[in-house]
Amino acid sequence: MSIKIGILGYGNLSRGVEAAITQNPDCELVAVFTRRDPSAVSIKTAGVSVYSEKDLPNFKDQIDVLILGGGSATDLPEQTPKYASMFNVVDSFDTHARIPEHYANVDKAAKDGGKIGIISVGWDPGMFSLLRMISTAVLPEGENYTFWGRGVSQGHSDAIRRIKGVKDARQYTVPVEASVAKVRNGENPSLSTREKHTRECFVVAEEGADQAAIEKEIKEMPNYFSDYDTTVTFISEEDLKADHAGLPHGGFVLRSGVTGHEKENKHIIEYNLKLDSNPEFTGSVLLAYARAAYRLHNEGATGCKTIFDIAPAYLSALSGEELRKTML
Amino acid sequence: MSIKIGILGYGNLSRGVEAAITQNPDCELVAVFTRRDPSAVSIKTAGVSVYSEKDLPNFKDQIDVLILGGGSATDLPEQTPKYASMFNVVDSFDTHARIPEHYANVDKAAKDGGKIGIISVGWDPGMFSLLRMISTAVLPEGENYTFWGRGVSQGHSDAIRRIKGVKDARQYTVPVEASVAKVRNGENPSLSTREKHTRECFVVAEEGADQAAIEKEIKEMPNYFSDYDTTVTFISEEDLKADHAGLPHGGFVLRSGVTGHEKENKHIIEYNLKLDSNPEFTGSVLLAYARAAYRLHNEGATGCKTIFDIAPAYLSALSGEELRKTML
């Protein structure tokens, strides 16, 4: 008896979820839903159909968990509460400042519908949050550090693409090695934005575009680039496709803490991800939490949950007995 | 209203728990219990008394959680089930092969007494198990690797001390860097015991002892050393005290997995600990799980739990709302 999964949206993240389902025999893809014309969306899984989002309410009895592949800016604030009243849902909502509000909305809807809604699942927020939280509980006196990369920031790449004269672009976020070394060494440095990450931009300019002007506009862009040491490299469209097609990412969370009556002993906890495909890894995390949503719902739980509220055993297809025997 | 903690035993691990309590204002040390003469045991915490283990049953109403600092060979198999019927208990049982049996015994006792027993808490088993389990659930196709060190193995140090002519010894377990590099590089190597760790022994010989014989006996000791590349260095008692007094340890758990319809994308998850004091870190983990035991019991839960069964939020003194706001 497999867990019946529906996916809303069919962007990179949804495709990552679809791929993850093929690696989890206890899960089964039932349907993909789209705002576009369903006939224009072709998915990888044989024998599974694409439907209009409008048809979703008709699938109430056919889907155990609906995974939302949409974006945090406009999709999820609306979709997750809406569907949490009808389905167990999992999303990757990542606008940190708006999490309390999103939590409240999803909690109300899920409780009203007797369903489970798990929000902010992925790696940051997600696995990184989990490690920050547990490490801080274990070592209450210390500092947390989060570094991202080396990896592609889609938000920053999009920001460059919006500049006049830019045909395409890819932006890599890169941790500053010297700062990372200080943290790993237990020095607990205070690090400015500039001291934590650099930004590497690979840009394809339109023919005849003013490259100097583009470079200046990138480097001076507030929020995105002006607080960072940024390098801009103009390359051909062919090179962008050949060398920068993937969506690798990663990063690490460090907790540097002390113990002992004199605080004399230092401890460093590091969690480190190196991901060839950001959306496929994130999709894999979403699917593991979909399994948890299914089980929690079967136990009668309702309401909004985050990664902090879910006992790790719910993520695994193995029984408690098997986990204790093979993983403990 | 603080969580009232009792500690059974007063070895290195119990002292680590005692130190951790000073860093967690919601926890309070109520009493330490010993099999020795209580008047011969002097603890660090002012105003707290040491009692005979025999007095423990009289403290049923004064202790919220009893943390067991004993060893896995003979103490915990007897103590944890015994006291789980009277107290919420947390132990660091680490004999992997006997965990299912220990779990069953503690589960029965805790259920009979309406208490919570959390077993096998620490970093391995413990945090390492948690990371192995979650990483495997997220990346079901891949390999797990665990490396320990560089750090002091107390079991191996004790084994050397039992050799005739040895006055004192300290053994370090050291990961083989070349093997670690292969794993981090996603090569998924098959590694023999010898390829994973080396063992460095610092030995103080009795005056006139046959050092060559001691070295031979160490290097050929089955289970402990014969399967490893082992180095033996004879040093003075003064140097042992000066340079090898601490109990540092650490290590890392890696999951190397693949995703994608063609398994074309690699991912490496690494969790890495560098600990100045193994017992203080382990004691800090035990205390965080004592907080979880207290809360689970207050919610009416009973029986044996492991680190897999406990939602991370139970470990933190912060509320769910605070955690979502600051850590997610």
Describe this structure in words.
- Two copies of one chain form a homodimer.
- By secondary structure, chain A is an alpha/beta fold.
- In chain A, 34% of the residues lie in helices and 27% in strands.
- Chain A has helices spanning 12-21, 75-84, 99-113, 127-138, 154-161, 177-184, 193-196, 211-219, 237-243, 278-298, 320-326, and strands spanning 3-8, 27-34, 49-52, 65-68, 88-90, 116-118, 142-148, 151-152, 166-175, 197-205, 229-234, 249-259, 265-275, 303-305.
- Chains A and B meet through helix 1, helix 3, helix 4, strand 13 and helix 10 of A and helix 1, helix 3, helix 4, strand 13 and helix 10 of B.
Provide the fold topology.
Two copies of one chain form a homodimer.
Chain A: E1 3-8, H1 12-21, E2 27-34, E3 49-52, E4 65-68, H2 75-84, E5 88-90, H3 99-113, E6 116-118, H4 127-138, E7 142-148, E8 151-152, H5 154-161, E9 166-175, H6 177-184, H7 193-196, E10 197-205, H8 211-219, E11 229-234, H9 237-243, E12 249-259, E13 265-275, H10 278-298, E14 303-305, H11 320-326
Parallel strand pairs in A: 1-2, 1-4, 2-3, 4-5, 5-6, 6-14, 10-11
Antiparallel strand pairs in A: 7-12, 8-9, 9-10, 12-13
Helix pairs in contact in A: 1-10, 2-3
Oligomer: homodimer
What's the Cα radius of gyration of chain A? Answer: 22 Å
Distance between the termini of chain A: 27 Å
User: What share of the residues of chain A does DSSP label as strand, in percent?
Assistant: 25-35%
Largest interface: A-B, 70 and 70 residues
| Main structural class of chain A | alpha/beta
